[in-house]
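#structure-requests
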Amino acid sequence: MGLLGTGSHEVVLEDVFVPWDQIFRWPDSMVKTNLPTSVFAHGTWFISICAAATHLGLARRTIDEARHELKGKTDRAGLPLADQQATVIAFEECEGQLFSLRAGVEKALDEIWACGLNRQKLEKRQRLEIGLACATAVRQSEQIVHLAYNLAGASAILRTGTLQRLYRDVGCLVHYVSVNTKYLEAIGRYRAGQDTFGYHI
């Protein structure tokens, strides 16, 4: 189904006036202002950041909600579910993965920001790193959400509950053009100097 269910597969703009100074060539162009913080973000990687930020947020919220869901719950022996070894370890694995994913995206963004401050175009390496970091963040965040969701127990399946919504939402953007498996393939081809079938990394 991809993104069809979200309605974002179709965008209609009617009677919109776009000033000339806001029009640019795609995918390569330079900034049109003299502001020291201006940067022109060309390439698919820029769109990937939005998806990565969304999924990292979904993963963070799911971990927190799952921990909250387990408060006060016990197993058949009367032992707290949140204190069991497997649960504690699983939550920390989620936390560790999320920390690493965020760190990777933030490191790549720091370099891009520095380029913007110096009015420099991004190097090939930087474009590869941010694209890969964002695509990985989206795809691995989905796994974090699934694991944390399962830790919450049967109450997580409540259709109107927060965990159920998070579980549904995290499956959406993995199909998006800027983070899907085809984009990962394009990154690999770009790294190897091959044809990227239309992707602007």
